[in-house]
Amino acid sequence: MRDVRKSATSTANTLAFEPGHDTSFGSGLSHFRHGFNESGLFTDKKLAELIDSYPREYYMITTMSGAGERPEWRNGDFNGASGKFVLNAIRSGQLWLCLRRLDLVAPEIDTLVNDAFGEIEARNPELKTSRRRSSLLISSPGARVLYHSDIPMVALWHVRGRKRVWLYDADNPVHLPDETLEGVVLRETEEEIFYDPAWDAEAAAIDLEPGWALSWPQNAPHRVDNLDGLNVSITTDYYTPAAQRKYGVYYTNGLMRRRFGWDPKSTATEGARALAKCMAAVAMKKLGVHSQAERDMMQSFVLDLSKPGAIDELPQNEWRPILQV
Ligand SMILES: [Fe+2]
Questions:
Q1: How many Å lie between the centroid of ligand 1 and the Cα of residue 150?
Q2: What does the alpha-carbon distance between residue 66 and residue 100 come to, in Å, rounded to a whole number?
Q3: The pLDDT of residue 67
Q4: Phi and psi for 293 in degrees, rounded to 5?
Q5: Is the pLDDT at 277 greater than 90, yes or no?
Q6: Average of pLDDT values for 92-115?
Q7: Residue 232 and residue 109: Cα distance in Å, rounded?
């Protein structure tokens, strides 16, 4: 990987981009430095306090299968553990914690992100972002995030530890068939999608160090390997007008295929037909046309309070839906 530290443009602002990567933010690959680490908000003590204060409906603690096992995410519960215990559990286990809705629960962190977006939009007046939602991710040194595709645009602001992000081509119909992306957009799956390790030869592998951020093309499949240390990052979902149109087109194409047996050929996001699909998507979402097929998030384990990092598996008849809002 090229060392962007030498080529990054440095300004009086807090962000430093690889050349051209300030204007590719919001559409293509963008790799840049940020200054979040100087805030003092991400020490063990601050993170433990934040975890202690987190409402149940806004966190997800997850474990993932090891190499060679059937890839799957499973959701759990803190089981009453303190923030300090949870951090130690993550440090010693195979866990991945997502603290959602920073805007409501940790506005001081959300402000860091919003200020950075303000700076990016000031550098690129054609860029307009909306519906920004940030979450804090805290994950184990050896944790992996399996191959998946996210619905919105994503910016990943890395704060602690090291991780390798593998990015695949969003427009490659082998890596991401239209029907698969429709299923993701319709929330039929928990975003796990078919992956062949042979595709790694065509992927971009980017090592994220503390203080570096990355954004990539909408829906580009990706997976993440933590390399070392407790990993702390902020992930921000956002939309641009083009990203909203792509969402609407795939939502409507997916419903047409599933409900009406049509085989939509066009994935164009410009023009009258695309606009009609976006309007149809809004209407069908409001009517709840597909809502019964959306996934239910089930709790299948709790943290083992006698051993940081271990989990207690729940028998399947004790699994229950996790309330998320
Ligand atoms: Fe993702």
A1: 5
A2: 25
A3: 47
A4: -90, -5
A5: no
A6: 96
A7: 13
Q: Ligand 1: distance of its center to the CA of 317 in Å?
A: 30
| pLDDT tier, 6 (very low <50, low <70, confident <90, very high otherwise) | very low
Residues around the ion ligand 1 (C-beta < 5 A) = 150
| Residue 42 and residue 51 in contact, taking contact as beta carbons nearer than 8 Å | no
Residue 52 vs residues 4, 78, 80, 300, 309: alpha-carbon distances, Å: 37, 10, 10, 22, 17
User: Which tokens belong to 186?
Assistant: 């319709």
* pLDDT 10s digits, 211-239: 999 999 999 999 999 999 999 999 999 99
Alpha-carbon dihedral angle through residues 54, 137, 233, 204, given to the nearest 10 degrees: -160
All domains in the chain, ordered by first residue: 14-177+189-239 (2.60.120.650), 241-293 (no CATH)
Q: Could you read off the pLDDT of 167-184 as tens digits, one per residue?
A: 999 999 888 888 888 888
Do residues 62 and 95 touch, judged by C-beta distance below 8 A?
Answer: yes
Q: Give 260 Cα–ligand 1 centroid separation in angstroms.
A: 30
Question: In the chain, what is the greatest distance between 2 CA atoms, to the nearest angstrom?
Answer: 60
CA 80 remoteness from chain centre: 26
Between CA 154 and CA 237 the distance in angstroms is 5
* Amino acid, res. 57: E
Q: Which amino acid is at 258?
A: R
